[in-house]
Structure of Ribonuclease HII:
Amino acid sequence: MPVIAGIDEAGRGCCIGPLVMAVATIDIDNLQKLSEIGVKDSKELSPKKRENLFSKLKKILKEYKFVKIEAAELNSLMLRKSLNEIEAIKAAYLLQKLEYRPLVAYIDSPDPLQSNFAKRIKNYLEFPLELYAYHKADQLFPIVSAASIIAKVVRDRAIEKLAKAYRQYGNLGSGYAHDEFTIAFLKRYVKKNKKLPEFARTEWITTQRILDNEFQRKLF
């Protein structure tokens, strides 16, 4: 039976925690079941609803896999590669780890020219694949929505674990660069330790600014 795949990420715009990428596959005859259980873009769902759907997806999907790109790895990779290139490499890695190769795959494209992202991925694939990259694919294709839910649940769990381990620095927030709780958390951590935490992304403007401001403050 033909299998289709969807790929998405969670945490691309974060300055704390991992970037998670996930692939989900399903027999084409079961595709309608995704809509029946309420699968949609993970950003439109509450954390509780995402967890609930994740449990249901495990019973419907042919298979799923994910990869967590921790901040330390991202910091190293971004010294020589763009974030889009890193995501393309990891997307190809996920596709190649599948036991059942899909007939076609859809992925959410971060590239301004959406089709370019599919070309990037194919540069790292070791088998031929009909691959389509679209902006907002997580809203267009339920199988990509399924991947987005998996990626988001995995990242949420990672952030929750970090929040508990470092609760002495206050509310960690969502980890996104625009989150005032995350920014305040980083400021408190840097003020006490004179460095960023190991789970912070050093190549992000937000973290660089916090670190720079702390050292400038010490000069006066």
